[in-house]
Amino acid sequence: MNEDSKNYFENLANGEPIDQAVNEEAIPVSSLAKSANVHIAKTKKVDSELDFFDNDFTSEAEGQLTIDVYQTEAEIIIQSTIAGVSQDDLEIDITGESVSIKGKRERKDEVKDDDFFYQECYWGRFSRSVILPQEINPDKAKALLENGVLTLRLPKLEREKRKKLRIKVN
């Protein structure tokens, strides 16, 4: 193990801030942030966990969308709560092996920072990409946005698992 890797794991084990690839420090995440619908992917350096909620990260941060991925016999299904996002503000890219969801949620009202009692909702750009556990048919995929829940239905590609091989006699 090289010296950088060793220091990284030592700092992680000791609970010390760890320099990220973008030269920013990791911050502790409170239970409120863990329960939020989106996770901050890029943050400013803050002095304490309480400062995390006092700073405005929406101008430079991109949130990571939370998703559920499960399967039925014929489909892989991806669901995500994306309340407050119109279908015009969503972009979904599908290949046979992966899905990418990008979008933005915009605040309608201008609110001064001093006027907030709580500020837990995420506003701004978000994205999520996932590699699928099985190949799907992107041409037959369907997306539904209903009551703030995005549901992607991705039909599994059915390949014949068995093939009879005929023996040739010479």
UniProtKB/TrEMBL annotation:
CS domain residues: 62-166
Domain of life: Bacteria
Matching InterPro entries: A-crystallin/Hsp20_dom, CS_dom, HSP20-like_chaperone, Small_HSP
Coiled-coil residue windows: none
Gene3D superfamilies: 2.60.40.790
PROSITE patterns assigned: CS, SHSP
SHSP domain sequence ranges: 58-170
CDD domains assigned to the protein according to its UniProt record, in alphabetical order: ACD_sHsps-like
Similarity field: Belongs to the small heat shock protein (HSP20) family.
PANTHER family cross-referenced by the UniProt entry: HEAT-SHOCK PROTEIN 20 FAMILY MEMBER
Protein's recorded name: Uncharacterized protein
Organism: Candidatus Liptonbacteria bacterium CG11_big_fil_rev_8_21_14_0_20_35_14
